[in-house]
Amino acid sequence: MKKIMGRLALALALAALVATGAFFAVQRAEVLRQETAWAAVQEAAVLKQGSTGSEVRTVQTKLKRWGYYGGTVDGIYGPQTKKAVIYFQQKNGLKADGIVGKQTFAALGMNASSGSSSGSSSGTNGYTSSDVYLLARCIYGEARGESYEGQVAVGAVVLNRVKSPSFPNTISGVIYQKGAFTAVDDGQINLTPNQTAINAAKDAMNGWDPTYGCLYYYNPVTATSQWIFSRETVVTIGKHVFAI
Q: What angle do helix axes 129-143 and 195-205 make, rounded to 10 degrees?
C-alpha cells in the first residue's frame, strides 16, 4: 500500500511539474507575441525608402507644397522622396538620415502612423497645443526683439496666411513653406520660445490681429527683395512693416 501511495505522489508531482512548465511556456509565448506586435508598431511609426501608402503620400504632398520635393505624389518612398526628406531635415536642424521618425513627423505637423495633424486638442481656440508651440517658435525666432504687439502681429500674419487660398492651409505648412521665414532658413525656428512668445501666439489665435489682415511683413532696413516693397503698406509696428 505504501508503495502504491508513493508512486501516486510521484505521479502527481510530475504532473504538477509538467503543468507548471506548460504554464510558463504559454506565458513566454504571450510575451514574445507582445514583443513582436510592439516591434511591428515601432516599424510602422517610421517611414523610409521602400515604404508605401497614404502616410508617404501625405509627406510628399507637404514637402512638395513647401518646395522641398519636385517628384510625383505617388505614395512610394523612393530616392527622390528620401532626398527631399534629408533636405527638409537639414533645414530644420534634425538628424538628416532620410528617415521620417518621431521628430521629423512632428516637424511636418503629422502624427506617426496616422498621417493626420499632430497635437492634442487642448490648445487655444480650436488650435492644438502643437500649433501653439510651433507658432510661438516662429514668433520667437522672427520677432523676439519686438514689442509684444509686434510679436502678436507676426503670429497674426501666419494665421492670415493659413486662411488665405494663396498659402498652405496649416500652421506648419505656412511656417515651413520654402523661403517664407528667415527663422526657418537660419535655424532659429528651433530655439525654445519664452513665455512671452507663447502668450503672443495664444493672443493671435484668439483673434487679435494688429495687422488688420496682412499677409506679409518685412524690415525695410534689412529686406533684400524688391518685390516686397511693392506690397501695399497697412501698418508699421516696431521695425516691421506689415503689408497686403
A: 120
